[in-house]
Specification:
It is built from 4 helices and 9 strands, in the order αβαβββαββαβββ. With about 200 residues, the protein is α+β, with helices and mostly antiparallel strands. The protein has 2 domains: about 90 residues, 3-Layer(bba) Sandwich (FAD/NAD(P)-binding domain); about 100 residues, no CATH class. The strands form 4 sheets. The chain has a 3-stranded antiparallel β-sheet, covered by helices on one side.
Length: about 200
Amino acid sequence: MRGAGPSGLELAGEIKAGFPEKQVTIADAAGDVLAGPYDQALRDELRRQLAAMGVALELGVKLGALPQAPPASAAAISITVEGGGTLEADIWFRCFGVSPQTGYLRGALADAVDERGYLRVDEQLRAADGVFAIGDIAAGDRDMAGIAGAQARVVAANLRAAITGQGEREVYQPFPPLIAVPLGPEGGAGQLPGHEGVAGLR
């Protein structure tokens, strides 16, 4: 399976929970699991649980190319790794590759796109004069549904203030790190606001 983010870790845990005899390997170009603003203790705990389940981690590994077989299809797979070596599998899952679709933007908005493809916004979630951006396109926070909802409320208030000339403009406050990563029905860990250390899922 390719991708050591939340979806890849969760899928690996589910596979091992249902089919403990199966060999599961997570490969990722990143040097650790779970990129993002999370405590290293959470990554360490997730890696510990994955190791106890028998999940192999191939981190810091760049693939020469993706398998020709479609994801989630049984097929003999041999993937060349940059720098030498191969990864062998009989099925693979694509758990990576989400990126914002901002290529259609033009002019000042295109200039406001950052190196990752996100649209830069100010504290009011404004990308340009009269243009606001929220959710997966905006660089204002992480890509999560609850965050997009909170951003929508701020933008709605700011649009109302701009149209009516009444009320104060609101400022968006990014959410603190918050995540729960299940690893099968019996494991997993997370990070919760106001909770010291790693939060267990049991």
